[in-house]
Specification:
The chain is built from 19 helices and 15 strands. The chain is of the alpha/beta class. The chain folds into 2 domains: 32-158 and 160-220, 3-Layer(aba) Sandwich (Rossmann fold), CATH 3.40.50; 257-425, Rossmann fold. The protein starts with 31 loop residues before the first helix and ends in a 15-residue tail after the last helix. Strand 5 (217-220), helix 9 (223-235) and strand 6 (242-244) form a beta-alpha-beta unit.
Length: 509
Amino acid sequence: MTKQYTTDSKPFLDTGLALVSNLPYRVTDMTEATNAFGRKEIDLALHEMPGLSSLRVEFGAAQPLAGAKIMGSLHMTIQTAVLIETLTYLGAEVRWVSCNIFSTQDHAATAVAVGPNGTVDAPAGVPVFAWKGETLAEYWWCTLLAVLWPEMNLILDDGGDATMLLHLGAELEEAGETADPADADSDEHRVVLQLLKMVREQMGDNVFRPLVAQVRGVSEETTTGVHRLVERLAAGTLRFPAINVNDSVTKSKFDNMYGCRHSLVDAIMRATDVMLSGKRALVLGFGDVGKGSVQSLRAQQAKVSITEIDPICALQACMQGIDVVRMDDVVSKFDVFVTATGNFNIITAAHMKRMKHNAIVCNIGHFDNEIDMAGLEAMVEAGELEKIEIKPQVHEWRFKNTTQGPNGGGHSIIILAEGRLVNLGCATGHPSFVMSASFTNQTLAQMELHANAESYGISVTTLSKKLDEKVARLHLDKFDVDLTVLSGEQASYIGVDQMGPFKPEAYRY
């Protein structure tokens, strides 16, 4: 039975929402038409997600997640809805929040809240707190409601926000300290500290410690979240085992590379209707996300260059005939800029001040601060810049004191999704098939943690090569693949089992 919290708490910042409540869900459009649309798209997506449908067939009867109470923080899309309902199909109880203010597909959130057997008048689905276009305060309010679940024993995270909130809250309680928003180094950090401050004032000093104590482990979806986990592990502050789903080959090479190859230009074209053929595009970063982004733009016959810090990635680009340049040297020459690094301040306000008129700027790396939006907002406050909404998640930023605009006047740039993930802010994200590979990894990771979390100790690990290959096998029937089978002698000759795994852990693919 879920603990009941008081509902007479003060509203959180300007949300108009009580800091703590017993809401069973919070979505934006609980209507029959929206639910029917979401349910139909979930059914269609399941057909395109053979990994998850295969896990339902293989493990449905055994209910391997019975007793698992999974709190998820991951983009609330149609594909995520299939993941959520796969987890519940395998026996888990689930509670969900989106990990991005713009990425929620509202019909998906509604359908998940209603559930396959519920109605809009009698929802019987999963508690979900998500809608497209949340403010930062609303986003962290949603995250708090999702983690205030005393029965929670596992986390499925994307970017590490849920993990971070629990850790930071517990650390403040142990230190006997109250969060001070004045210590914040960004607007979002200030919101988080204000949230923690209000929790302390309204709920006491023992909220997060018991929650953290019950978490047996987390599976993490992204590069950003893995970085945060590894940093905590090195510092000795990680409180439960973590499985790094991001670095499974069937995640990083599929979601990160092939997903971006599909969804980057989809987002740019939906947002701007600009023809990309012949345009000069700069992709900042040539990891898996950058590689997929380059393929996406080159498929439209854009002239693509990249920036890189890593000599190996730079050499890979050279071998594909791609120029490797420095941003400061070429910023005035390109028409489209795409950040894909996972770092911060990759494109600064000073860079954007030097860009061509109507250059398009967007981010497909997970970090929300790859583009210096704070620097632009400061220029707006100083009267140097004007922000104009063209349509939701598409803004013109007009510089007043530059000379590369029309008739030698101020120029504009077009920023998509306010510097957040463009493929989810301006389009529908990655297609179902590549998300099937990612989410099959997530489901297997949750099964592994539920069965064996304590055996991992405090660690950050990846799934075994055998499970990675299993994920790939579950998707091959979709392509009518007939794998060659090694003879016993052939397997012995190269030192592998006839049924794999076939590559050593260090193999790069």
